[in-house]
Amino acid sequence: MTQKIYAIGIGGTGSKCIRSTVHLHAVGAYGTDVRLGVLLVDADASNGNLQSARESVQTALTASVALKDTNTRLFGGSIKNYGLWNPLGEFSDRLTLSDIYLEASLRATDAGLGELFDCLVSPDEKQADLSVGFRGRPSIGSAVVSRIRQSNFSQGPWAELINDIQADCANGDVPRIHLFGSIFGGTGSSGLPTLGTLLSRELKGVRSSVQITASVLLPYFDFDIPDDDDIYAEAKNFTLNTDAALQYMSRLAGDSFNCVFLLGDSVKQRYEKPATGGPRQNNPSSSVELMASAAIAAEVGEGYGNGAYLTVSDDPLTTWEDIPGSSTAPALKSGLRTAYAWYYNIYNEIRDAQRLSSKKSFTRGAPWFDRFYTLNGQGNRPDIDSEEESRKILAFDKWVVDFLSWIQQTCMNGAAREQLADIRDDSFTNASGLEPDPSRSYEENLDALVIGQTLAKREKWRQSIDLLKNKLADSKHRLEGTIGLINNLYDII
Fold first, then answer.
1. How much is the pTM?
2. 193 located within any domain
3. Residues 450, 469: one domain?
4. pLDDT by residue (tens digit) across 79-91?
5. Across the beta sheet with 3-10, what order do the strands follow?
């Protein structure tokens, strides 16, 4: 039976968690027969973190469709993209709180409410442009999100998502809805508990068959004052914001969730170039977001009450043993080695093959090639130059670049750098055309890639690229072409 997971990323931090989630799903961390649905929630449609997440979702989706016949953990599941939902909704033409609440009319009809509005929201907050989101201010986010009604779920992406969940339940499945968001900013702190409650109510007819869980991110980064606006998130308020939001969740929203995972870090990652919103707000990925995404692989109810412990450590470095889920770390390691070997070795040899007119001269140096492809239509296997194979090669390569860029950021964040994987000096880019990319230098082996793994001399030899390619040449397999190549490379690794 296919497992159904619906991941909802709320705000900038939620978007970053979605990026981690699609990559964990791509490498099979959640299992091989899994359908992942993705929905992003943000009022700032141009936000850099949001755009990065949307690109990662689309890249993984394209690769998943191109490699749909895979029989390994790598792209063994499917992805459905529900797109973006703006919580401003019907108020999208009114981009200040003063406009949303029709302040002048409010004061005219009820002076007391007007005075209450003054008490709860500062003059600057009333006039702040909300096209860049809720500016890390829970007071702004709560004022907007409080106007969301149950009727919102009958329109936009919510209607399709709710229908799919109800259909899953009718088929006897137990779908899992997992929400991501920070609890100390503007969008996540207000949106996560509210949307969890609204979803629980909307699904009341099948609620017992649905798991609603959440990764709630506590403060894990810091930053200087942005230079682009006067209304911005302030790190000094994060602790107070967190306390208030957690109290709200405990009192009013706790019953809506089957399990809540709290994640944070006492060693704060510092963002060097902060921005209030828009394209400039594009922060590097973090191991905290990786852990938040890995929570999907954790069993609901592990730990105490309806909260669960993922890992607790005084070590400032994240280790592979810290990552929850029995299959998460092995799947991520295998995906990393496969992507790395493809990027630096296999891809450039494929490009070499496409440039050469003589099949014989090439296959002497790359005997694995004959197992999967032909050149110039000289054989029964898929032609390396065909449009279909080129499409699959490019789709997988684009995902590889995005995946390696993501995990490099994850391994380099925070005060304690160089964790999980040693890929500090690499710069990953998408190649264009048929020319091999000179920036993709030939790598001899994969033994030093994964940190914390001590291998005997014999085992290091088994991690050499040349041995991997020799095994590809000797492999017996069901699939040919690009799909067969990627399947076998992953299996061997």
1. 0.86
2. yes
3. yes
4. 999 999 887 766 5
5. 78-85, 34-41, 3-10, 176-182, 211-217, 259-263
